[in-house]
Design brief:
The structure holds 2 protein chains of 2 kinds. By secondary structure, chain A is an alpha/beta fold. Chain A contains 11 helices and 10 strands. Chain A is globular and about 55 Å long. In chain B, helix 3 crosses helix 4 and helix 3 runs parallel beside helix 5. By secondary structure, chain B is of the alpha/beta class. Chain B has a single domain, classed as 3-Layer(aba) Sandwich (Rossmann fold). In chain B, the strands form 2 sheets. Chain B has a 5-stranded parallel sheet, with helices on both faces. A 4-stranded antiparallel sheet of chain B has the order 2-1-4-5, with helices on one face. The complex binds adenosine-5'-triphosphate (ATP) (2 copies) and magnesium ion (2 copies). One magnesium ion binds next to helix 2 of chain A. One adenosine-5'-triphosphate binds next to strand 2 and helix 1 of chain B.
């Protein structure tokens, strides 16, 4: 049966082991480990300060952990992310990865037009034809529901939700293989959030995109994530299939988290 | 296709002083290809719980669950995800969808996930929605605003759009009128004839009589009050 063949063949896209980072005496994240497979969406939930952003930053090489391994399966084989040189890491960040920051200002160039923000990523991977770049930028603005008439406006003139959508367009336009998202739908109204979820699901399905998404919204992870990881005080207290963790949580903290929302 | 041996389940409610709630003890049953088995028993006896353990969103405490050869109690999330993609189907009681996604897409999605082309997927979804009497003018709308019975039929269409060899059905005919109930029973009979192993919960005795080859009373697996 096809089941066996899909499981046997490949290697994880990302292998993480014993990842630990502290800030002086304070725990950022501690002893985190997991595998992420191609086409898989991993959700990370947990209270404020539980280490979600710290973990994501360490995974993407923005921050050096104190300990641990992060192995990414590049087109030319597995590479230890933490031992990459800075130029190598930047190249990976431009081509294979995307990082959607919790605060859109951290992921956008505020002095460059909306179209320029999207086009810049395309140029970084070698696009040169101005007309095509602009056309593609305009297409992606449409996909995240930003009026294409605003392509020449700067993000500083956008609302927080629009900035976030622009950041997402800028990140996805180059067709990355792994997307890190830190609360990507936080400041968005429900309707735009739904549109984005649908867009992401489509990309995961069509392009085999893998996603690690940090969010506090259990309804979002329910609809988007295959697997879920629950963090508390820097540690993973529970991980498993998303609907299993939400419907039959084992850890006291997860039970509290799930029982505190009305219905997911 | 479904083999269950000595399956036990208890919930530990940490938010309620660590109360342990045993809900199932040494449940055993099997379902062969082409067979439909009905779970019966009073409300709260554990029918849905048993079904959810097979689907994998409830963890088994003890015992074995095999579905299409996979040892579910010991399987990795990735293996269960693969099993759910095309082999194990589940029609739950409520529809959960991304808001704003059109009904036709909601129903076609399981096929798209299997790599079937959008044209073929949508054509199959449309045929099934038509058969389940969902008016065509609703296909381009999200099912989130549909009536209970319409949502249930969308959920059924989504569950039947790909012929899964193993199917779990939790009260698929609960809020349907006689005409639509007959359509759903017909879909079940057709899946059975095609060789699917089906485990179902049907409150309506007529429905059970029409589609089930036999029933299993889960009350026998309900732990006696200590
Ligand atoms: N640059 C820093 N210097 C010192 N401590 C930090 C720093 N960044 C984070 N921390 C601490 O590390 C812990 C984890 O923070 P982190 O930002 O990863 O949490 P989070 O789960 O992303 O929270 P939120 O949901 O609020 O975004 C917190 O106790 C935080 O105060
Ligand atoms: N996630 C859960 N956490 C705690 N207890 C649960 C959970 N799910 C089910 N139970 C308990 O397990 C028992 C069996 O419930 P279940 O839903 O399986 O019954 P059922 O036979 O399907 O009933 P009905 O016919 O009313 O649908 C009940 O006592 C229920 O309260
Ligand atoms: Mg954070
Ligand atoms: Mg039930």
């Amino acid at each position: 049966m096809t089941l066996i063949s899909t499981i046997a063949a490949d290697r994880p896209l990302l292998h993480v082991d014993n990842l630990t980072k502290s800030y002086g005496g304070r725990v950022g994240c501690a002893d985190v480990g997991f595998d992420l497979w191609p086409g898989e969406v991993l959700g990370i939930v947990g209270e404020s300060g539980s280490g979600k952003s710290t973990l994501l930053s360490c995974l993407a090489g923005h921050m050096a952990p104190d300990q641990g391994t992060v192995v990414f399966e590049t087109a030319s084989g597995p590479r230890d992310v933490l031992s990459l040189s800075e130029p190598e890491r930047r190249r990976l960040a431009r081509t294979d990865w995307a990082y959607v920051h919790q605060n859109p200002r951290d992921g956008l160039r505020m002095g460059v037009s909306a179209g320029g923000n999207v086009g810049e990523r395309l140029m970084a991977v070698g696009a040169r034809h101005y007309g095509q770049i602009r056309e593609k930028a305009s297409d992606w603005l449409g996909r995240v529901e930003i009026d294409t008439g605003r392509i020449d406006d700067r993000p500083s003139a956008f609302s927080g939700g629009m900035q976030q959508r622009l950041q997402i367009a800028r990140n996805l336009v180059t067709g990355p293989r792994l997307v890190f998202m830190d609360e990507p739908t936080g400041g968005l109204d429900v309707s735009v959030q739904a549109r984005l979820l649908d867009l992401l699901r489509g990309l995961v399905r069509q392009m085999g995109l893998s996603v690690i998404i940090v969010t506090h919204d259990l309804a979002v992870v329910r609809l988007l994530a295959d697997r879920l990881m629950v963090m508390k005080s820097g540690r993973v207290v529970e991980q498993g299939l998303t609907d299993q963790v939400l419907d039959d949580p084992q850890h006291a903290y997860t039970q509290l988290l799930v029982s505190s929302v009305l219905q997911v | 296709m479904i083999e269950i041996r000595n399956l036990s389940k208890a919930f530990t409610l940490h938010t309620q002083g660590g109360t342990v709630l045993p809900v199932m003890e040494r449940a055993s049953l099997s379902v062969q290809p082409g067979e439909c088995v009905g779970l019966i028993g009073a409300s709260g006896s554990g029918k849905s719980t048993l079904m959810r353990m097979i689907w994998g969103n409830y963890l088994a405490q003890d015992g074995d669950i095999r579905v299409a050869g996979l040892d579910l109690a010991r399987a990795t999330p990735r293996q269960i995800i693969a099993l759910r993609r095309g082999t194990l189907g589940y029609v739950s009681q409520f529809l959960r969808v991304v808001p704003r996604v059109p009904t036709l897409q909601v129903v076609a999605e399981p096929l798209l996930t299997l790599g079937i082309s959008p044209d073929v997927a949508e054509a199959r979804a449309a045929a099934l929605l038509g058969r389940l009497n969902i008016p065509q003018r609703l296909w381009s709308l999200s099912p989130t605003t549909f009536s209970g019975g319409e949502q249930q039929r969308v959920n059924i269409a989504r569950g039947f759009v790909h012929p899964c060899p193993v199917l779990l059905l939790d009260e698929p005919t609960a809020s349907l009128d006689a005409t639509n109930r007959a359509v759903v029973l017909d879909l079940i009979l057709q899946a059975k004839a095609a060789g699917a192993a089906i485990l179902g919960i049907f409150h309506d005795e007529g429905a059970r009589a029409t589609v089930c080859d036999r029933t299993v009373d889960v009350t026998q697996f309900t732990p006696k009050a200590a």
